[in-house]
Amino acid sequence: MFVKHDLLRLTRRAILAAAALLVAPAAALAQSDPLPSWNDTAPKAAIVEFVEKVSKEGSPDFVPEPERIAVFDNDGTLWVEHPMYVQLAFALDRVKAEAPSHPEWATTQPFQAVLEGDMKALTAAGEKGLLELIMATHAGMTTEQFQKIVTDWIATARDPRFKKPYTELVYQPMLELLAYLRANGFKTFIVSGGGIEFMRPWTEKVYGIPAEQVVGSSIKTQFEMKDGAPNLFRLPQVNFIDDKSGKPVGIQEHIGRRPIAAFGNSDGDLEMLQWTTLTDGARFGLIVHHTDAEREYAYDRDTDFGRLDLALDAAAINHWTVVSMKTDWKQIFPEK
């Protein structure tokens, strides 16, 4: 009886041991490359070298976990920003949806341009016109109502070129990078010029970044009691623009710690990269350079969305890592 029991126990142990021998090499292989969608080029090596030196205890560059803050731009860094910013596409759709309630829009710019599909006239409206569109489509409702509108739209909207949801047009290499950093004790934040309340409903599901770790532009909000219920009401007034020089300010106000790593793709990220890297200690700056017209888009100095000019020049001076989508990434989007 005891012999049989011991034999079964030993047999089971032997089977488990054999299984471990079979599984271990595969697991070790998977763990040996935390960035499988990255080609084995200089940017990947630079990322791994930085992460290892700041996360290894005993290293002269070791950084305690609470100080391992990494900040990411969103548009053009984590997901597509061409042919236009996704939030702009959202605003244009909102104008069309709300037009029956605003007959005056048919003869009022920039709304008329949106309704007639006149992109030339819309571009001519400039920042002032775009801001007018945002105020008309993002305000005059509670935060809960806006969140539902965004959630419904992001679930159904499709990119005009790839015919996929925008949330499927995130960059697989950057998703791996986010996971790799978090696995090594980093706290990851989005710091974007996009609207903070536009991003918060979906960033955790898409990027693993919760709402409280999203920093972005905002409009003014006020508390009010209505029919005995408390609400936060969105006003048609700008509160904060989290772009360019606003990004370091947003980081300080929302995060309260200076990052040790920053990731961007345009001149709108220049000051964030400077604030992060131009100081003492181990620091890392990275720019995603859109160089792949076949799999995504190719643009830098001459574009209306995501211009990369001053920051590209600054990268060479400040030793920031520049990632070429075409040569440094094996794949662009997640495979579905």
UniProtKB/TrEMBL annotation:
SUPFAM superfamilies the UniProt entry points to: HAD-like
Superkingdom to which the source organism belongs: Bacteria
Signal peptide: 1-30
Pfam families recorded: HAD
One annotated GO molecular function: metal ion binding
InterPro entries: HAD-like_SerB (IPR050582), HAD-like_sf (IPR036412), HAD_sf (IPR023214)
Keywords of this entry: Hydrolase, Magnesium, Metal-binding, Signal
Keyword DNA repair: no
Gene3D superfamilies linked: HAD superfamily/HAD-like
UniProt-recorded name of the protein: Nonspecific acid phosphatase
Source organism of this protein record: Mesorhizobium prunaredense
Gene name, Swiss-Prot/TrEMBL: napE
